[in-house]
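Much of what follows relies on a compact textual record of a protein's fold. A record is reproduced here so that you can trace the correspondence yourselves:
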Amino acid sequence: MLPSGPQVLVWRPGSGLRLQPELVGSPTTTAPGIPRLWNVAGELLLAQALFAEPSSGGPPAGVDTLFLSWGERRGQGRGRAAALRALLALGAGPPGAADTTLAARWQLARRLAAQADAALAAGDLETFGRVYGQLKELLGIGRRKLAPAPDRR
């Protein structure tokens, strides 16, 4: 964590053996890994992998999905880079340190609209719904404020 915000350094070991997928059926099942927790800039960072395991038994074939959580932010992806991009997509600073200027909010709204459009084009309705909800919240659309109850006489 730097004063300017989070910085992620990724180290990659040499490329491993890639297994060829079978043409029919799914040769793997998934199993959750152990959740890992860290304190980052006063917020809890959680990382948990969903491993692809051969149906016939044996060691995991690799990571199916990586889930990240930092404060109120969530991100997931097929690998570290994708999960980190999703986690940090809504801003460069730590949780709670968002730029609230009109220009920054407009830029965030444009980015959310682009993410929602891309998710819809890809047929990912879960991501579309989540991002669309964030966009509505940012724009203040759909908030229903109830009038206060009248005092009893």
Notes: Residues 102-121 form the longest helix (20 residues). The first strand starts at residue 28 and ends at 32. The mean pLDDT is 77. Strands lie at 28-32, 36-40, 43-54, 62-70, 73-77.
